[in-house]
Known about the structure:
Layout: E1 5-9, H1 13-25, E2 30-35, H2 67-70, E3 74-77, E4 81-85, E5 90-93, E6 98-100, E7 103-106, E8 110-112, E9 125-127, H3 131-141, E10 146-150, H4 154-163, E11 169-174, H5 186-198, E12 201-205, E13 209-213, E14 220-223, E15 228-230, E16 233-236, E17 240-242, E18 258-259, E19 271-273, E20 278-281, E21 288-289, H6 294-308, E22 321-326, E23 329-335, E24 345-352, E25 355-362, E26 365-372, H7 378-386, H8 394-400, H9 407-415
Parallel strand pairs: 1-2, 1-7, 2-3, 7-19, 9-16, 10-11, 10-16, 11-12, 18-20
Antiparallel strand pairs: 4-5, 5-6, 8-17, 13-14, 14-15, 20-21, 22-23, 23-26, 24-25, 25-26
Helix pairs in contact: 1-6
Amino acid sequence: MPFRHLVIVGASAAGITAAEAIRSVDPGANLTVVAAEREEPYARIFVPKRLSEELPVSRLAMRPPGLWARLAARAILGRSAVGLDNDQHELWLDDGTRLPYDGLLVATGASPAQLSCPGQGLDRVSGLRTWADAERIAGWLRSARQVLVIGAGLVSVKALEALVRRPLALTVVASSAQVLGQLLDPAPAAAVKARMEARGVRVLTGADVVRLEGDGRVERAVLSTGEILPCDLALVGKGVIPNAAWLAGSGLDSPQGIPIDDRCRTSLPDVYAAGDVAAAHDLARGSARINAMWPNAVAQGRVAGLNMAGSPATYDGSLSMNIGAFFDLPAAAVGQSRPRSSEYREHVLSADGERYRKIVEHEGRIVGAMLTGDLRPAGALQSLIRRRAPLAEWEPLLARRQFTLPARIGAIARRI
Length: 416
């Protein structure tokens, strides 16, 4: 039997897809959407663009204006969830409201990880995740001259792509030995670093910020190397953490994300989760994991919404897949692209300058891949990895695209 009152917390990719799925099968459901932001749903992936140009949030809109009215949903905007009483089936909001529900979807996403060093609370120190973050940073940039980016992951590099368009002295500090340490191997990462430096970015790897200093506002950073960097703005890109702390005491407040099953259900009755807060079955790894990507959030939101509305649907599992261009170098990392275990075998097929090809196998099956330069094989690789296909299936694709298979891999493939 469909639920009577369905509540969605979060209004990004997972939340809006769930709302649309609910309406597709139950036009009469009592539907409420709670969102911490007041803006209509927008694509967070494009938020860094605000750092290079003036543009309204409507340019980033995921749907035409008036989405909630079209879905006949009650929208509670500018309010955050602060607690959950599943025994009473009540959601608590930050204004004291207690919102009853029969079915609840947690789609609260993630937030930038905070620095753990002194000075993190100074003015002009910020992460970059929301439109409000981008607007605030854009305001600071009007008077900034020296900008420090802490961390060299995906968000940091995309922010730097925008910032190089401004007349700024830019420095990025990474604790790892390379940029994009979670995404790329050292060789392609070095190619991205070279492109960054060619655009005027000073890249410092193997260093940490141990202290931020200033009189109320950040003025300099002290590094683990002893160097002191002047800065009048610090952008923090040290990863994200799932927004689940507000669920403390419910059993769902895991820093590794809320585990969900193949119907996107949590361990609590009538509570679902989807998107960057949810840990779903990872097809390449065989275990639960957050794969914080738009397609995964959309797929999970749809499955959660259909099940909440009483229309059974299943989610096969997620797959890590980052595809984009970093300082105009196309790159893709799919599945277990950077394994940390000796149980996996990594086969570099090509490492010719900025053109890089690698596949990862586990027990004779393809579980990961990395490409830079020409990304044409990415779609085929995604399909193979989702199925954990035998390595032999890769040989015809290599032949069609005029790649060569090293003899040691060919021997493995022929034995499968």
